[in-house]
Specification:
CATH class of the largest domain: Mainly Alpha
Structural class: alpha+beta
Radius of gyration: 35 Å
Number of helices: 11
Helix content: 40-55%
Number of strands: 13
Number of domains: 3
Length: 439
């Protein structure tokens, strides 16, 4: 095989590949033998059709089959021989490529390649230096954590007779709407619990200003006008009369911080035990936060100390992934709100501009960490892959089997992307373990 490599730019190469004539001849011979086994031509037994007749009838088909077989085989050999790592390849369409038996076959593949990264300081003798984060869990934070638990264990109890409703109270209410004296469908709520002062609406009504100073058993009327342009044509330009009845009034009672409270929170025997467990959990969370902050600093240092051109294909691929995720989240929010609009061309253009910098950052960081992984001999084992699947399934609140199906549905590219993310995380852990924390 002969090959010529031509630079088309920092990240592009043209590989002109020539397949020897004897290899072409062998491929044609094998193709016609296989064809002879498969075709049925009147007057000839299977496998006994003359080659000249096959060439006359099926020459074009055989040529295409030989090209389809030769191109990937010799492209792979050429890439290995050239010592490059392609991220994208363009091969001319088959109808533009000509091949003849007993003659060399030449084709050109244009590839976009990964950059050759000259790694800078990331381990001894010149590790990345980090400022110490000496934060600890304070007694005040522990007290706030206990207050959260108290809130979770709080009970709503009836207020004393004659209690005047104020912010912080909880009321159970019934609400009915009438339009022109007739009950209006969709404007009925019964047994609705509402916290006074929360400014939460009920059936679109702001009711806090109406119930303040009232008492249990009171009934009041609220007139709600609707603008002429309201989407619900039944009420557009009209006024609905709502009747609100306060069925009961409750107040929140927090439990005392004692051993009985601890027992109500779970398998604890004393208040001190729940404090110890709470502090342990808060310390673990703080440790993860500090580690994440250290890693964010490491990523920024790697970004600042490594300079190289990025393959545009990788940036575009990452940008598409970011936009796809953004649109999925947007659609979920729209479904919750009852909207069904799709983003227009201008919206997509704006999204691409907005997220291009982030896509570029992600690609650069990934390439640097992949280069570190390669230099340090880091790999992704099956256990690493399985552990990440379990972690992701837990984070997404999905059955593991369902997540595996989703990943497999994305094809080999989806699996490779996940393996790359795991490898990048391992490389970042490596740099973190080799960093120097001052003091």
């Amino acid at each position: 095989m002969k090959m010529e490599v031509t630079e088309l730019g920092p990240m592009k190469r043209a590989l002109k590949i020539e397949v020897p004539a004897d290899e072409v001849t062998q491929r044609f011979a094998r193709a016609y033998v296989e064809l002879n086994r498969q075709v049925t031509i009147p007057g000839f037994r299977p496998g006994k059709v003359p080659l000249a007749l096959l060439e006359k009838r099926y020459a074009k088909t055989v040529e295409e089959d030989v090209i389809r077989a030769l191109v990937p085989d010799f492209y792979e050999k050429a890439v290995r021989q050239a010592g490059i790592v392609p991220v994208h390849v363009e091969i001319p369409p088959l109808d533009r490529v000509k091949i003849k038996k007993n003659e060399p076959f030449t084709f050109t593949a244009t590839v976009e390649i990964k950059p050759n990264i000259e790694l800078r300081d990331y381990k001894a003798p010149s590790p990345i230096s980090l400022k110490p984060d000496k934060r600890t869990v304070t007694d005040e934070q522990l007290d706030r954590g206990l207050e959260v638990l108290r809130e979770q264990q709080a009970r709503l109890e009836a207020t004393p007779p004659g209690h005047t409703i104020a912010d912080g109270d909880y009321i159970v209410l019934d609400l009915h709407g009438l339009l022109d004296g007739v009950p209006l469908e969709g404007t009925k709520k019964e047994g609705q619990l509402h916290k006074v002062g929360s400014h939460a609406s009920v059936l679109g009504l702001e009711i806090d200003s109406h119930v303040g100073g009232k008492h249990e058993g009171d009934a009041l009327e609220i007139s709600q006008p609707y603008p002429a342009g309201h989407p619900d044509l039944r009420v557009a330009g009209k006024t609905v009369l709502f009747t609100l009845t306060i069925k009961s009034v409750k107040e929140k009672k927090l439990p005392a911080l004692d051993d009985e409270f601890a027992k109500d929170c779970g398998p604890y025997n004393s208040l001190q035990e729940i404090k110890d467990r709470l502090r342990e959990g808060m310390e673990q969370a703080l440790k993860r936060e500090i580690e994440d902050n250290y890693k964010d600093t490491i990523v920024k240092r790697l970004m600042d100390t490594h300079h190289f051109d990025l393959p545009e294909t990788l940036v575009e691929r990452e940008l598409e992934a970011i936009i796809r995720q953004h649109l999925q989240q947007q659609q979920q929010q729209q479904r919750k709100g009852g909207a069904t609009e799709s983003p227009g061309t201008e919206d997509l253009t704006s999204l691409r501009q907005e997220h291009r910098e982030e896509a570029t950052r992600r690609v650069k960081v990934s390439l640097v960490l992949e280069a570190i992984a390669e230099k340090e001999g880091l790999t992704v084992t099956q256990d690493d892959f399985n552990s990440e699947i379990v972690r992701l399934a837990s984070e997404l609140k999905l059955p593991t089997a369902d997540l595996v199906k989703m990943i497999k549905a994305g094809g080999q590219e989806s699996i490779d992307d996940l393996r790359t993310r795991i490898l990048v995380d391992k490389a970042l852990d490596f740099v973190y373990r080799n960093a120097m924390i001052q003091g």
